[in-house]
Amino acid sequence: MLSKEDQKILNKFAGRTRRRYAEARIWAFGSRARGTAEWDSDFDICVVLPRVDRIVTQTIRRIAWEVGFDADRVITTIVMDEDQFENGPMSESTLVEHVLHEGVAA
Predict the structure, then answer these.
(1) Fewer C-beta within 10 Å: the chain N or C terminus?
(2) Tell me: the pLDDT tens digits for 38-73?
């Protein structure tokens, strides 16, 4: 379970991301989503969009850096297009499984 502070950070990241990419699906996952984070744990966020290219990935990483800097968190993003997430080899990975089963949707 996300702490209240981490939920605010996720919401801020999601809001800024969706201003740019309204169709983004966003989840927090990992130790912060499970509520087992240490003070220095990174904040893992998965973003899924219909289409992803280098510019989209860079933009989302920049948003993550800005939001994380303001909140004193290192936000690590995984950015995938819908086909990768739902049908590609990644769809069978433990990463996607953790996102879907333990992740906290924004």
Answers:
(1) N
(2) 989 999 999 999 999 999 999 999 999 999 999 999
> For 64-82, how does the pLDDT look when each residue is reduced to its tens digit (9 = 90+)?
999 999 999 999 999 999 9
Please indicate, yes or no, whether the overall pTM of this predicted structure exceeds 0.70.
Answer: yes
- Give the distance from CA 50 to its chain's centroid: 15
Please count the residues of the chain: 106
* Neighbouring residues of 69: CB distance < 8 A, sequence distance ≥ 6: none
Outline where the chain has alpha helix (H): 4-20, 31-34, 54-71, 82-86, 94-102
CATH superfamily of 4-105: Beta Polymerase, domain 2 (3.30.460.10)
